[in-house]
Design goal:
Length: 120
């Protein structure tokens, strides 16, 4: 089912897009929890982690390689960064189009959910 992220992919609604190729799109989160907070999404509509199929494995892997590529470009790869993907309501998923949160630019603390998931 189409979500707001489909409308970002199709440019029906604006977003601060930082990377795009044929398979993935990355844009800044509208409610950033860190100096760098981007969402990396597949262009293919996959609602949750539970819906990822074996044929999607390379595509999902690409979300991670895209995060690493951006981290290197932005100079945060060595200091470190966090990637998180929420699944369903108890994890705080609000948009049902899988997305990798990439957070960087400050100490993120531990456990991770104190920063990232308190909204949920
Ligand atoms: P999650 O809770 O894991 O489903 O994260 C959804 C994230 O999506 C949340 O951090 C806010 C962000 N978000 C929701 N709507 C929009 C939007 O229209 N534009 C942008 N850039 N981000 C959005």
């Amino acid at each position: 089912m189409a979500t707001i992220f489909s409308k970002i992919i199709s440019r029906e609604i604006p977003a601060d897009i930082v990377y795009e190729d044929e398979q993935v799109l990355a844009f800044r989160d509208i409610n950033p929890q860190a100096p760098i907070h981007v969402l990396i999404i597949p262009k293919k509509e996959i609602p949750t982690i539970n819906d990822i199929q074996p044929e999607d494995e390379a595509l999902v892997g690409k979300l991670y390689t895209t995060a690493a590529k951006l981290a290197k470009e932005w100079g945060v790869a060595e200091d470190g960064y966090r990637v998180v993907m929420n699944c369903n309501q108890q994890a705080g998923q609000t948009v049902y189009h899988i997305h990798l949160h990439m957070l960087a630019g400050k100490p993120l603390g531990w456990p991770p959910y104190t920063e990232v998931m308190k909204q949920g």
